[in-house]
Amino acid sequence: MIRERARALLAEVAAGTRTPDEALDALVGAPLEPLAFAHVDHQRALRQGIPEVIYGPGKNTSEIVAIAERIVDRHARFLATRVSDAQAAALIERFPDCVANPRGRTVRFPARAERSGTGSILVVTAGTSDLPVAEECAETAASLGIVTNRLTDVGVAGLHRVVSGMDVLLKADVIVVVAGMDGALPSVVGGLVRVPVIAVPTSVGYGASFEGLAALLTMLNSCAAGIVVTNIDNGFGAAMAAARWLLK
Amino acid sequence: MIRERARALLAEVAAGTRTPDEALDALVGAPLEPLAFAHVDHQRALRQGIPEVIYGPGKNTSEIVAIAERIVDRHARFLATRVSDAQAAALIERFPDCVANPRGRTVRFPARAERSGTGSILVVTAGTSDLPVAEECAETAASLGIVTNRLTDVGVAGLHRVVSGMDVLLKADVIVVVAGMDGALPSVVGGLVRVPVIAVPTSVGYGASFEGLAALLTMLNSCAAGIVVTNIDNGFGAAMAAARWLLK
Amino acid sequence: MIRERARALLAEVAAGTRTPDEALDALVGAPLEPLAFAHVDHQRALRQGIPEVIYGPGKNTSEIVAIAERIVDRHARFLATRVSDAQAAALIERFPDCVANPRGRTVRFPARAERSGTGSILVVTAGTSDLPVAEECAETAASLGIVTNRLTDVGVAGLHRVVSGMDVLLKADVIVVVAGMDGALPSVVGGLVRVPVIAVPTSVGYGASFEGLAALLTMLNSCAAGIVVTNIDNGFGAAMAAARWLLK
Amino acid sequence: MIRERARALLAEVAAGTRTPDEALDALVGAPLEPLAFAHVDHQRALRQGIPEVIYGPGKNTSEIVAIAERIVDRHARFLATRVSDAQAAALIERFPDCVANPRGRTVRFPARAERSGTGSILVVTAGTSDLPVAEECAETAASLGIVTNRLTDVGVAGLHRVVSGMDVLLKADVIVVVAGMDGALPSVVGGLVRVPVIAVPTSVGYGASFEGLAALLTMLNSCAAGIVVTNIDNGFGAAMAAARWLLK
Amino acid sequence: MIRERARALLAEVAAGTRTPDEALDALVGAPLEPLAFAHVDHQRALRQGIPEVIYGPGKNTSEIVAIAERIVDRHARFLATRVSDAQAAALIERFPDCVANPRGRTVRFPARAERSGTGSILVVTAGTSDLPVAEECAETAASLGIVTNRLTDVGVAGLHRVVSGMDVLLKADVIVVVAGMDGALPSVVGGLVRVPVIAVPTSVGYGASFEGLAALLTMLNSCAAGIVVTNIDNGFGAAMAAARWLLK
Amino acid sequence: MIRERARALLAEVAAGTRTPDEALDALVGAPLEPLAFAHVDHQRALRQGIPEVIYGPGKNTSEIVAIAERIVDRHARFLATRVSDAQAAALIERFPDCVANPRGRTVRFPARAERSGTGSILVVTAGTSDLPVAEECAETAASLGIVTNRLTDVGVAGLHRVVSGMDVLLKADVIVVVAGMDGALPSVVGGLVRVPVIAVPTSVGYGASFEGLAALLTMLNSCAAGIVVTNIDNGFGAAMAAARWLLK
Amino acid sequence: MIRERARALLAEVAAGTRTPDEALDALVGAPLEPLAFAHVDHQRALRQGIPEVIYGPGKNTSEIVAIAERIVDRHARFLATRVSDAQAAALIERFPDCVANPRGRTVRFPARAERSGTGSILVVTAGTSDLPVAEECAETAASLGIVTNRLTDVGVAGLHRVVSGMDVLLKADVIVVVAGMDGALPSVVGGLVRVPVIAVPTSVGYGASFEGLAALLTMLNSCAAGIVVTNIDNGFGAAMAAARWLLK
Amino acid sequence: MIRERARALLAEVAAGTRTPDEALDALVGAPLEPLAFAHVDHQRALRQGIPEVIYGPGKNTSEIVAIAERIVDRHARFLATRVSDAQAAALIERFPDCVANPRGRTVRFPARAERSGTGSILVVTAGTSDLPVAEECAETAASLGIVTNRLTDVGVAGLHRVVSGMDVLLKADVIVVVAGMDGALPSVVGGLVRVPVIAVPTSVGYGASFEGLAALLTMLNSCAAGIVVTNIDNGFGAAMAAARWLLK
Fold first, then answer.
1. Which of A53, B101, G224, H162 is a good FRET partner for G135, with 20 to 30 A between their CA atoms?
2. pLDDT grade, residue F22 (50/70/90)?
3. How far apart are CA H214 and CA F25, in angstroms?
């Protein structure tokens, strides 16, 4: 559209209906700024599947519904994360065809997303308390049309559980490892596979876990080379990172 | 210049020597990106007095001299901060007319900068150990053509010293308060004056000063309303912040 | 007034109606202490617009109303910040002509403040969750008679949004940039403009945002020279800092 | 007494009515341990006025009453700190002659304590939000029979307020300075007086006050020599420290 | 091979030349442990290009040469990181065909690695002080046969520099963004591209950069969705992470 | 059991009822992975007393009951820690023979565990507020059939209390020392005894105790050699550590 | 003196040799400011024994000698702390009658100070590595004419050593307890005595001592009521705090 | 010995060669204090193998030799830790029969210690950089007459290496696991064995390892139940902890 407007301006110049100086002002003035970003918008358009995501905290129920409506109008889909029960209820009422995941605190619409790409994400969790973060990751992936598989409750203190999942690990395209407490699981998984491993520390734990800081530091210092890390409890971000690889 | 190039393109379109589509490609393609930033460059040009500053750490003596030469070629001036003795010596040898301040670890060129604006900065220090940061501030100001005055060694533990400087404080346009250890001085000064107060924590102290963290936190929590803060030991930044007001 | 009292004393000494020793006691005794601070009071009087601000936390509703009454008696105006819903309700009941801003958690009186100075503040926010802090800033400015403009939701991850606001940015007198999470916006804005930029980190975020610490550190380390920083969530302080420039 | 028991044992050995080995067991066995600590108990007895203090958190109302009863039985007095409303109510019901201070969260019994020593404590506070800690300090002092005076709301941003209190400051025996936010007040007070200054940081503030850490660090780094510091919000500890001087 | 050994054992049992119990001991005893890890070794073999990397710190020159020799014997290549000048000199003397990068503190052998895969890494740096980390990243990639491109000195305070590099950014397969101080660059880059962005905080800065902590936190809290982060100064790890995608 | 399955397979091969290849698949295929860990399982089996422990947080009442049932089915016992009142009530209703400890927030089943080994644990606490952690430790020990003794309220500020407990200390097999606030008790106890001392910091305290961080650091830096430390408030872990010694 | 000057002015007014307005200018003008602080100066004069102390870091040898000379001129004494070997040598050369303490890094002059007051300080150290801080404390006290006694190497891990010093502890007027690592000693000492206890954390230790932070936190959280704390390694401050009591 | 002295005194009383009062003075007087600690000393005597250990830092070569001589006089053995090269050389010259371990920075004497107990320590290390801490542990054990075995370089990123060491792990009496960086190894080892596991974090790493803090937090939050932790780099403490079990 911006390109079209520029093209029209230039056509007017060629036609002599607009002087070069007038066109210059129109192009270089304030309205022109977005032009240089035309690519950006273009390439944002390419990844249509990733419209702005709704972050729940600090919005009341009518605000969150209004924002969802606006996004649906443009993209026919939305994803809301970290929603409260009240926010979820309001979205469900307005968009009955949505999928609400109470554990992951997400609502996405529509229920069925067209599959994007061919790869899938394996979400590995250390303990059952890490599941909410895994759910957020899976729901985000689902909203992007990416399939996720699970390997659950394979903390490193029971090594045989990790090893039992070896086959699943070796088949994965991208692995998201979700772990709280000592956050040691990504180091073990990272040493077993050669595909991308995205480590997500969780705030699961108490005392010196310092709300996930311990797990975060563990993962940043992983002795398995090439592990990358997201913010604490950021299942959403891990799925988005995986999407950068799977959908690129 | 960019504007000129755009104007030339448009003239060619008007003259029929270039089609609108060719011009579009030239404008919207990669070379066009900087266009939208023409203002930026324009307004950067307006503040000619603030060319890129040379940050000493990590450069060898020949590199720092080469960079200084390049900047002098374009701006006829330079400022280097946090320079080592060897870097300073190399710059002095190459630019004999420079001003080197060993305590402030700066070198600036030329010795005499034309005065900018009419305001001046008052640099207040809590203790003599804070002087290197005050010097860096003063030298940065000098390189911008801004005059600085001093009120030195007026730590809050000797309140009469602050009060003795009352007249000086009340005449200032902008006050930069440099303090380590407890960092309490900006709170006192901020309560005495109504002009802008820029607080610079220093790493002076030991033990629980944690390299300036204590002073930084004190200043961020100042009970004097409207105190603003820079990074620890950032005399350079304080002068630049003052310049944003005095030269705007 | 104090000066007058001193002058009267001296006149009595000259007239012989008071001995030098009596005058000395009157001057040097306890009541005299404020004398040296006469300037201070004088210049405080000059900025009449900034009477003591009421900080809500820890006051019950009758206390906060009583304090507001006392300040209104002397200054015909007040500003209360971080007020609870109950505190706001009590103030509204007592001062029907006040302006209560629930999002900014402020109450100010009277609704209409006379405009001070000619400059204005541009408040830029990275995300919608940063709005409460922006509101506190705007309300504080309003209580001082300073006009604020807004540039909202221009986080750096969507750079075209910042650039689209270029014209607004370039017209500002002082810019307050409010941002949580990565706190990167002030660095970008600071590089685009030459006016004062006051960065306000917010506690928006989770996990490794550590309640705003991440954004605070980002801003203190800004690669844009001359950015100054306030405490986390301190919209009030940012407005007060801006006032130091605009009203000086 | 212990010495007597030992002497008796030795007499029996001398008399041959007890073998050396039997005496050895009696002397070196478990019952002997307290012997070396006889002084300790003796000197604890000397400061009868400081029986064990009841720390409220984690005790239910019947527990706290029972503990208070036991202490009253032995010492005819008690002090409870950090009590909840329910705990306070229970203590008031059981000990109608007690003094409950809701702001300081203390209950002490009996209402009237005999005055100890001749000195008094001056409790200085920076802001009204620091009052709960000041109250805890004053109530602790009262329970020890020590008189406290007050100098309130003399934060350093309004220096004239501190100076107005000069006379009061200069008459004090021991000064407890209670301050949150920037915690700068003890540095100012410490520079004005030569008596002991005990600095108590409070958790008053937000953002980078980090629950009182900022004030704590400020005080530990005070540029006024000889300032000593207690834990955050520890009004109780400050009074106890003052008592060590006033009652020694 | 392990499978073959197991098969042989079972054949012997079937042939009656070994009892089930003997076979059981052979299978379940210590020598069997590696069996379950056969896949692992197999897949490790597949990525032959990534033999153990030599971490310089704490090794003397003869040790580091010996280790390099052992790895070269098995893999005909090696990569040493964080080497001292003395370590580099010793390796150069022993392996004249190596590539030593003093700025990146790496030595790799042989000089020419066969190209792996078809993708390449774009290494973007905020300032010239970040170059050592960028060099470590590039050398690691080179040792794996991966091509790297560069976009240098595009810190966010000069936004036009980032935008000028738009074309380069949009062509990249994987982007490694290296930045110290405020660490804001990955947020800007992440918002401009849809490919994987690996953010590497550096220890460049002073004061409240806390040796790279500020940049690390910024990146973990990036408002650009799907940014992943490595340890501070970990150029090596970023290349290894990129390799997981490019070589998978 | 796994060993039995392997033996059965081999017997079938020996008997000719299964071909070596069929057996190989059964042994080496995915199901085989656990085999290498047979020892592990075997030795886990040996300590039957330590089945998986149920961590309460994040489970609803029906989930926690279901998990407890599953564990009881296999092990005829269970231990649940950090349970809420509701969780405890649900478990009590389902397993009337359980032991619920509200202070320690544990439920264990059955009420009577067979005594394991001959040693016992001495749990020493500094203050009454540390009792919940001591209870968790004792209940964990009880669920393992280990006897615990107590030495309560022997904080180092009343040294005679520690010394009075000397006999008890000297008879202990393993000592768990539970302390909050200054966390000094393990240093004193560690210097008095030669048996293992496991130090458990608690979150008891306020202000600069930073939720137990102060006590944790104290214990890690103990001047009594050979003190080992667990996470903050980890009474469970201390009992498990003691069990490693007493039941080995 | 200031009072005298004021009195003289008033006498001149009374005598008619100076008009009231002239006197007013002299009194209220800039030179008057110090007036309100007359008490301050007066009382500062009273503690003549505590002239400004010279803090070594950041001064070259000629600067430190010059400052010492100036202080000696006014006060006939000086104390320099944290001096380097070169600084000490320069001071010794200039003031041969000084006392240099290499371990405490102090130089004081003259060698013999007149005894002030009747009380003395007991300096208790946990380990021999804490001696430098103890020496700084003792030298500071000596420079003030205060006698110090010692109780050395009585760390809490060897409780009998503390108890052996019981008699010494009970005779002290003020006790300074110097301890690194776990910092537990003040809690034990504070529980044994009723006199003031000033706790000085030292940076002795490694790892999780975090340069004295562990000891600092321990002391701030001491379970012995009424312990006060100084900055890490601040032997100087502890002596000054003791002086506030002993010399008041 | 103390018991012997008491017994001798009593024998003299029984024999009539000493009066009860004389014996009383000898037993209960000032010299008596240690008596109550007779058990302590007695039991300290029992572990003769653990005389005071010499901590190198802060001692000059003549001091360290003198201390070693004094300890050798009483105990015929010594252990010095964290010794500098110069300290080691001085000790070697004086005690040619000592064992100096440059990597572990220890010197112990005599070379051959009599074996204590029957158990042994297995020291497991994650990487070769962790060896100095492992050496300190082994030398400390050797000085106590305890045998150590090694399992080296078995970091969790190469899980097959841990599993290959399974037999060694299962035979250990006490396991000390030494690991830096992510500190994940103790979690894995702790899940594989049932004997005591003492985790020692090391300062190996960079950036967000924060000098071992990351590994420390990982270990404190280990998901393997019953892991205990020492200070960072505290190989000495781990051996002493192991000795508490093996020699009790």
1. G224
2. confident
3. 43
Residue of G nearest to D141 (CA): G226
Secondary structure E strands in B91-232: 99-101, 106-109, 120-125, 147-151, 174-179, 197-201, 228-229
Q: Chain B: residue nearest C173 by CA? A: B248
To the nearest whole Å, the CA of D236 is away from the closest chain F CA by: 12
pLDDT at site G36: 35
CB contact under 8 A, A244 and E192: no
SS (H, E, C) chain A: CHHHHHHHHHHHHHHCCCCHHHHHHHHHCHHHHHHHHHHHHHHHHHCCCCCCCEECCCCCHHHHHHHHHHHHHHHCCEEEECCCHHHHHHHHHHCCCCEEECCCCEEEECCCCCCCCCCEEEEEECCHHHHHHHHHHHHHHHHCCCEEEEECCCCCCCHHHHHHCHHHHHHCCEEEEEECCCCCHHHHHHHHCCCCEEEEECCCCCHHHHHHHHHHHHHHCCCCCCCEECCCCCHHHHHHHHHHHHCC
Query: Is A35 touching C (CB cutoff 8 A)?
Result: no
pLDDT of residue C2: 45
* Contact with chain D for residue B154, Cβ under 8 A: no
Which of E82-86, F171-175, G151-155, H139-143 is least confident? Answer: G151-155
Is the minimum CB–CB distance between D6 and chain H shorter than 8 Å?
Answer: yes
Q: Which of G35, G6, G34 is nearest to G18 (CA)?
A: G6
Query: What are the chain G neighbours of C35 within 8 Å (beta carbons)?
Result: 28, 32, 35-36
pTM of the predicted model, to two decimals?
0.87
Say whether pLDDT at A40 is over 80: no
Look at residue G23 and tell me whether its pLDDT is greater than 70.
yes
Q: What is the pLDDT of residues E35-90, one digit of tens each?
A: 333 333 333 433 334 667 899 998 889 989 999 998 888 778 899 999 999 999 99
Cβ of G40 and D192 within 8 Å? Answer: yes
- Distance of alpha carbon B214 from the chain centroid: 24
pLDDT at G116: 77
- Map D43-106 to HEC letters: HHHHCCCCCCCEECCCCCHHHHHHHHHHHHHHHCCEEEECCCHHHHHHHHHHCCCCEEECCCCE
Phi/psi at E49 (5° precision): -65, -10
Chains D, E in contact: 3+ Cβ pairs under 8 A?
no
The phi, psi pair for D198, rounded to 5°, reads -105, 120
pLDDT digits (tens, 9 = 90+) for F88-137: 999 999 999 999 999 999 999 999 877 777 799 999 999 888 999 999 99
Query: Is the distance from CB of B109 to CB of B210 less than 8 angstroms?
Result: no
G104-159 pLDDT, tens digit per residue, is 999 999 998 777 777 999 999 998 889 999 999 999 999 999 999 999 888 888 77
Chains H and E touch (3+ CB pairs under 8 A): yes
From G163, G197, G225, residue closest to D53, measured CB to CB? G225
Say whether pLDDT at A132 is over 50.
Answer: yes
Query: According to the model, what pLDDT value does residue A5 have?
Result: 62
Report how far Cα G205 is from the mean position of its chain's Cα atoms. Answer: 25
Q: Which residues of D touch G230 (CB under 8 A)?
A: 220, 228-229
